[in-house]
């Protein structure tokens, strides 16, 4: 009871529910329900995508496009509206929405009349400063996505708040995180749907935590606005959601390689030694990140004249040795009047910084001490900030790492006893004609910084793809940036938590994601680092990182045995690049995650719903990592079908569990029957040489009557934006297997990109291989079984 802890009891303000429907009107695929002083509007954006809006005042606000692509770009939907005495039904060829009139309640049905997203008392309701909606949790329903989330994969029985926060020292119980993505999918056998809560205000999902069997969504915005996406499976939900909020561009191929980072490699000498050690030890690496200490007194867009006296020469030497350079940029601009610091001077003169409600420039404390902050809601500020990146790209910087952009601010200088703050919630941001309070746009700060960075790099890098990495973002961040999971720790628990975190990001439309390998804060043990490098090989973004005053976390610092393990798994990553690059193309075109929980491919096997310690890298490689010290074997669940042990070729029949060997040198890996995985040679960096040899590994099943599988190998130059205008090559591999023979068909390569001359090896496990020179034509190879 509250009084036990010295607190006075409180009474929450009651909710007012949406009353009965008084009239219904249809206008251009929008159905308006007049509920007296309130208005409910439902429109079909696509056959499986319904938008629901309700204004307690009866007047809907002008829609903004911060996260959502314009609805008018979608083709018109054929729908039927049926009026009944006490209800209205809106029917497309994929789903049906029934709106009861007394009181006003909404229920969706699939074509088999299974209900989902069903309103339950008190339905759509509001009170001062908030609007909410309550819905029923169906039997066997589980919840995934929600952006960046700690804890388990399934978020049922949790409360999940969307408010970007510097989540330093987060753990399994942390709610608010660096990212705020108000999207989730609900899944049960035979049916799945997604909910995108289209609000940038503070919002929250309660997944049965307060009331078992009921989930709710609440926002502090003035109206309810959400999209319902019918699946029925995760792939289609994500395809529609990412069509709504956008998909990622193709990254440069080098960004798929191994990245090395530390806070900080703080001198040219140290960076040169690091790069040379990678090459001397023959450990592949593509990227070196420079943290805040490369700057002059933490002033953004500067270089330390003592520690980095000739940054252009350093970056050129790194480039000659096969390394790309990525530099960190924070939003805090050092407050330095009369300091001849042009970033501050230009920002002040142009009125580019966030202001307090009284008109004064807001300031807080970050790395450069007293700092001011660009208002990225203003298009001219985004242009100005993007243009400043030219000072970095002109000397060869290939990518930008955006940090501290939740925004992370303190009220006193770093090192003093202070507390975290953010801009005043009533501070106005954005251009004069479209102002919004910080209460509305807080969650967009990191998003708009990343957008500014992306657009600046695209403008100033002369047809070269760039790499952008951000800590904070909102729904649709995949259009502008990759994302890492912030400041994790060198703990076994954080290693275990990394895969469900990344999988839920992928199920939220953000595919290019990673966690700091080895843990950022604290000291990894040799065993933990080895296991983490194995898991990190699966991360779409493979970056090791460590904090100031911690032990070093490079692959060679833990002794010869761990160095060999690191080398082996980084080399495997590079061998898998043709497969992995094709997965990135699939994600860029359809929104498909790269790292996937088992439920993504097996949504009708409830056993997969709670499995978070196994993942799929694309459709053809399943990993069962080790997450605890001293473990030498582990239970592995194999879904339906035939599976191969990657290392031994041993065959297993699913569904069911097996016990897999897992000595320190081995992460259990499995491949489903029919898998087609193109692989390349080991390289020390991704463009060390052209892909002059290609091995396509195929896994058949002896005795299986029929099998039909396909995989599309995607290729381009890996560097330029020419792929956007058709400079691509796609080769479709098709595997057909009968009881007597296996036929491997290769379609003619499409697109106008041509790879270098190369030999292709088709290697069918257990049945030999065939070789040929790749001429881009069609080919049929037969293997007798």
Question: How does this model look, in words?
Answer:
With 785 residues, this protein is of the alpha+beta class. 17% of the residues lie in helices and 32% in strands. The longest helix has 16 residues, at 445-460. The chain is globular and about 75 Å long. The mean pLDDT is 96.
List descriptors.
51 strands, glycosidase, single chain, 785 residues, eight-stranded antiparallel beta sheet
Brief overview, please?
17% of the residues lie in helices and 32% in strands. The protein is an alpha+beta fold and 785 residues long.
- Which residues sit in consecutive blocks of at least 5 with pLDDT less than 50? none
> What is the number of helices?
13
- Tell me what portion of residues adopts beta-strand conformation: 25-35%
> Strand order of the main beta sheet, please?
35-34-32-27-23-22-21-37-36
GO molecular function, one term: hydrolase activity
Protein name: Glycoside hydrolase family 31 protein
Keywords: Glycosidase, Hydrolase
InterPro entries: DUF5110, Gal_mutarotase_sf_dom, GH, Glyco_hydro_31_AS, Glyco_hydro_31_C, Glyco_hydro_31_N_dom, Glyco_hydro_31_TIM, Glyco_hydro_b
